Amino acid sequence: MTSSKLYNAIFAAGISLILASLMIGIKLDTDGSTLAVRGATATQWMWIGGGIAVVFFSQLFSAQVDALFGAIPKPNIKAMLPQDQKMTTLKPWLIAALIVVMLIWPFMVSRGSVDLATLTLIYIMLGLGLNIVVGLAGLLDLGFVAFYAVGAYTYALLSQYFGMSFWACLPISAAMAAAFGFLLGFPVLRLRGDYLAIVTLGFGEIIRILLNNWTSITGGPNGISGIAKPGLFGLEFNRRAKEEGAVTFHEYFNMDYDSSYKVIFLYLIAVILVIGVIYLINRLMRMPIGRAWEALREDEIACRSLGLNRTAIKLSAFTLGASTAGFAGCFFAARQGFISPESFVFIESAIILAIVVLGGMGSQMGIIFAAIIMTILPEIAREFSEYRMLLFGLLMVIMMRWRPEGLVPMKRPNLELKQP
Amino acid sequence: MSQLLLDVNGLTMRFGGLLAVNGVNLKVKNRQIVSVIGPNGAGKTTVFNCLSGFYIPTEGSVMLRDQQIAGLKDYQISRKGLVRTFQHVRLFQKMTVIENMLVAQHRHMNTNLLSGLLKTPNYRRLEKDAMNHAAHWLEEVGLLAFANREAGNLSYGQQRRLEIARCMVTQPELLMLDEPAAGLNPNETKELDELIIKLRDVHEISILLIEHDMSLVMGISDHIYVIAQGTPLADGNAEQIKGNPDVIKAYLGEE
Ligand SMILES: Nc1ncnc2c1ncn2[C@@H]1O[C@H](COP(=O)(O)OP(=O)(O)O)[C@@H](O)[C@H]1O
Ligand SMILES: [Mg+2]
Q1: Contact A223, A217 (CB under 8 A)
Q2: Domain with B58 in it: what CATH number?
Q3: In terms of Cα–Cα distance, which of A415, A325, A410, A418 is closest to A367?
């Protein structure tokens, strides 16, 4: 054990001590009408001491800790899948089976599960959208939630002021989000990685603050409520038709009213949207633009020398990612029936980014897994909801140590030259 | 036939106080191999960077077929038919050989997003054309058998050849090679020599070459420019350069 290790460990423990003392050790409290500073209780100090000890020893023995992580077996996804050749024949069947299961499954489980599944699908959509920007084009975007908000508010406002339907607003929301992506991207994409991250972070906040303060239009912090739910070819899923003369779903099909129809219908829309997005991205990855994204990530200078306009290529990724978020936002507004700026805070951007990183940048399969984990875990661990962020941090640290390349590392489909 | 392709006059590049290139003139005619030689740090790569738009020259004019290109963006210049390689190989290492070739054809293949998403017949045709074109050039440089390999796994000599093929697939009029023979063994150098001559004689393009391998330069160049410390020192054919006392002095150093 070298002295630099010891120094490192003392340094880390010292930082932890300072931070913990400031954040947990001292508390401001109201004492009648004045403020009073209170120290932490003895048990809290014990916990702080314990935590610092953990930091100290884990730094001191970091090599051993690393070895421990290395010892955890890494599942080799490639090996678990059948051989390539078999895979190509099996794949369509597998996908078909999966889609059938996805479509039948909601009729057999509780309403709550279907609702949670719908939420998961929204995050999958967001993850896939951000994946275009971060995973495929390599642009760090910390304000992705802004485009989600634009999509959601576009539908909410069009529905409120002009009574437009969900289906009409879906493409409009995507187009609006794309337009915002384009407007932001145009000046900003010249910036290098870290600067880009800061500017997008700022943009996310600007949109949220704008929505919060433009009370006359957006309702400010009160948000917009009573957003119409999507209908099926004009059939509503309410108990009674909202408009005079309109027909509801259960009346049309002569069934009893059941509120779970609405939930299942929303779920099915989400499934279709996600399948659409997956298809889209799959195509993009095989198209020249997908190759250009990867090429730009690998060697920007070579790209420029070959006549590729890097701004245009990055802009296309930014815009396409934003439009996916717009889709998700529109659907989110329809599902919730109520939106407010509260739904579009920075932590949402962080969660979406975490999904992309956990999943393995660029890989769609990984992102779907990660989105499922990130939405289902908090539901299962409800009792720990106070510690949600803590668990979230822990999960990230463990993942970065154990499998920095993500759950399913990405492999872009190659175009092969068939030789005679 | 001996029409002027590239005409560079008074090219100057300043980095703060450093005068890296100072009043360089170059002329390249159709179907010519022109070399730029000079000691290390003479400013040869900087000249290439100015011509290809990576740097905006401080002064001077660069005419490509009577069209001023100094000040244009790098990608605009390469679209006009002036394409370069780099002193250090710059391939898309993780992509396959054929994909490297397809990226270079990006603007020929990239119709619109919708036709790609829907795989229209037009899109398929463009993709097929690009594949055939790529295969043709891979064959020319002897890499067809490696088409589906990862570019980073090729040998150094193969990577150099792939870089040239990747430039050629963009259909340039002027190919600029920055020390293409550096690090090659004698056999590979000979193949390179033949390839460059074939590019001029069969494919009828012009080549601007930076190279330290004097036997290669003297053997294939139609015209040679010498620069030292950013300043033009001499120019002429191989015989004239070999006999020029200034050039000998610049290379051997002053006694
Ligand atoms: N971007 C730059 N900033 C500052 N100085 C540079 C830059 N590029 C090149 N130079 C300087 O210009 C001079 C010529 O370099 P270079 O063109 O690479 O020489 P050569 O290719 O002939 O060996 C060197 O002194 C180098 O340090
Ligand atoms: Mg050089």
Answers
A1: no
A2: 3.40.50.300
A3: A410
For ligand 1, atom 26: residue with the closest CA? B41
pLDDT tens for each residue of A5-33: 888 888 888 888 888 888 777 777 777 77
pLDDT tens track for B236-245: 888 888 888 8
SS (H, E, C) chain A: CCHHHHHHHHHHHHHHHHHHHHHHHEEEEEECCEEEEEECCHHHHHHHHHHHHHHHHHHHCHHHHHHHHHHCCCCCHHHHCCCHHHHHHHHHHHHHHHHHHHHHHHHHCCHHHHHHHHHHHHHHHHHHHHHHHHHHCCCCCCCCHHHHHHHHHHHHHHHHHHCCCHHHHHHHHHHHHHHHHHHHHHHHCCCCHHHHHHHHHHHHHHHHHHHHHCHHHHCHHHCEECCCCCCECCEECCCCCCCCCCCEHHHHCCCCCCHHHHHHHHHHHHHHHHHHHHHHHHHHHHCHHHHHHHHHHHCHHHHHHCCCCHHHHHHHHHHHHHHHHHHHHHHHHHHHCEECHHHHCHHHHHHHHHHHHHHCCCCHHHHHHHHHHHHHHHHHCHHHHHHHHHHHHHHHHHHHHHCCCCCCCCCCCCCCCCCC
Q: Do B42 and B106 reside in the same domain of the chain?
A: no
**Residue holding tokens 């210049």?**
B77
Answer yes or no: do B99 and A414 touch at CB < 8 A: yes
- Ligand 1 atom having least distance to the Cα of B15: 4
Same-domain check for residues B4 and B74:
yes
Final residue of a structural domain among B143, B171, B199 = B171
Specify whether the CB–CB gap between A137 and A318 falls below 8 A: yes
The answer to whether the CB of B45 is under 6 A from ligand 1 is: yes
- What is the number of structural domains in chain B? 2
B128 and B195 assigned to the same domain: no
Q: Flag if A308 and B103 touch (Cβ within 8 Å).
A: yes
Q: Is B92 in contact with A283 (Cβ distance < 8 A)?
A: no
> ipTM greater than 0.95, yes or no?
no
Whether the pLDDT of residue A385 is over 90: the answer is: no
Residues B218 and B240 in one domain: yes
What are residue A253's phi and psi, to 5 degrees?
-95, 10
Domain residue ranges of chain A, discontinuous segments joined by +: 3-71, 97-402
- Contact check, Cβ <8 Å, B170/A306: yes
Residue ranges of the alpha helices (H) in B92-120?
Answer: 97-104, 106-109, 113-117
Residue B7: pLDDT over 90: yes
* Most A CBs within 10 Å, among B95, B149, B169, to test the A interface: B95
CATH 1.10.3470 fits A97-402, yes or no: yes
Q: Which of B149, B171, B193 is the last residue of a domain?
A: B171
Expressed as residue numbers, the domain containing B142 is 91-171
B48 touches chain A (CB under 8 A): no
On whether residue B86 sits in a domain, the answer given is no
For B163, the enclosing helix (H) or strand (E) is helix B156-168
**CB of residue B20 inside a 6 A radius of ligand 1:** yes
- Token code pair at residue A148: 């989600």
